[in-house]
Amino acid sequence: MEGDCLSCMKYLMFLFNFFIFLGGACLLGLGIWVIVDPTGFREIVAANPLLFTGAYIMLAMGAMLFLLGFLGCCGAIRENKCLLLFFFMFILLIFLAELSAAILAFIFRENLTREFFTKELKKHYQRNNDTDVFSATWNSVMITFACCGVNGPEDFEAIPHLPYSSLEKAVVTPEACCQRELQSREGMFVNKEACLSGNERFQNRQGCYTVILNSFETYVYLAGALAIGVLAIELFAMIFAMCLFRGIQ
């Protein structure tokens, strides 16, 4: 009976580690995609130190989980106490790090409010100055998501205007808010002159905060559910690893 129980734990341990292996592969792939994606996210990630750090942390965590899942599977099948102990200690550190990151994300969630982004935009945005990292990032966001400002074009009224060609008129709306045939920097403007002269028909009027929130709302809940699932799998894997370690003679 004891042998059957040990055999059952061994295969359950293998199953849990297989899921950890798959989770690590997914995180690794997602981290690589965020860093090399050509549709605008690469510039956004590179321009924001927090996102830049987060992308590489996700990459590192994915690689570690990928390796740990592999080692855990090998340790379970081969009944190697050394591999199982190494697996348990390493996954415990990862579990605590992920739990700490989740707590910090909850504590600092107020930094992602509409008011925070509006204040930062009005303070640092320099319109078409792509040599400025903050401005280039915002321009990429507005072009990629076909949106304008945080709340809408009115966010730019407090930002110093630029004279526009022979019209000698202050331009409130930046070029990045003008409608394009394709949502990329290479996309042709639908009607740039009409947009910059104030014709709302050729401007993206919706704020980026709402557009991005709606775009990622489903993925945020999915990511949260995935994170809870990964933590639960890691917890059970540690329990089975220790039980299997104690059961091996």
UniProtKB/TrEMBL annotation:
CDD domains referenced in this protein's UniProt entry, alphabetically: uroplakin_I_like_LEL (cd03156)
Keyword field: Disulfide bond, Glycoprotein, Membrane, Transmembrane, Transmembrane helix
Cellular component terms (Gene Ontology): plasma membrane
SUPFAM superfamilies according to UniProt: Tetraspanin (SSF48652)
Transmembrane segments: 12-36, 56-77, 84-108, 219-245
Organism superkingdom: Eukaryota
Intrachain disulfide bonds: 147-177
Compartments where found: Membrane
Membrane topology: Multi-pass membrane protein
Keyword check for Transit peptide: no
Family note: Belongs to the tetraspanin (TM4SF) family.
Protein name as annotated: Tetraspanin
Lineage: Eukaryota, Metazoa, Chordata, Craniata, Vertebrata
